[in-house]
Amino acid sequence: MTMTIEERIKLESELASYSGADRVVSSIELFDIIKERESQSAQVSMVSGIPSLDRAIQSFDGGELTVISGDTGMGKTLFSQTLTFEFFKQGKYVLWFSYEVRASQFLSQFGYPLPAFLLPHELSSSSMDWIRKRMIEAKLKYGLDAVFIDHLHFLIDMVSRNNISLEIGSVMRTLKKMALELNVAIFILAHTNRGKTDSGEPDIFSLRDSSMVGCESDNVLFVWRLVNTPDQAMIKVSKNRKFGVYNFKVKLQKQGKYLREVYDVS
Length: 266
Description:
This protein is α/β, with parallel strands linked by helices. Helix content is 34%, strand content 20%.
């Protein structure tokens, strides 16, 4: 872009005293601004209730986007419901968008007594705008802490002629922005591509349809059932942006309606 001398002098004069929200600041100034902002609003932070997982990644925090993935029927929803129950015990408010099963079936899976969490009276849409409005509503009414969406492909127009990988990337990026904007932890359930890896276990390259699922997320967790065991499963951390945890695994067992850690005795 070619500028005249007069235009350049005017621009430099404006920028020399610019004080907008996107102004350039020093690291020290920004650190102080962030600390002041955090002191005025409570930081959202939750633990999983699974001791080894909590020692590894410490917590799920507001602003984070977490992917929970695995093949169909491998325990993604069960693990997510376990987290919901644990967050409820910590006094956190969780909002669920469960597109895969009817509300009556979904609620019955929690057993009795039913933990208190939030969900729309009717799932009238799966658009990002509608989901964002429900999140804001829940934030204003209840002080929302976490959101679960089951699952990613319900947010995508599967019959569209657009590039599905780019669509998924756009959805993931929008969810991350929502998490930051509303200071909530968002969990999105996602399928795998069923491809075999060298280890025989799913990893970040197993995420279905788009590498953007892993790229845009802060945490990627995989769930799969152990063969020849009716009620045991593994959780693997394949990505953790906060501490760099990688390929960390925890064995779990279904006890009642939820998953609990199994400690192998050698």
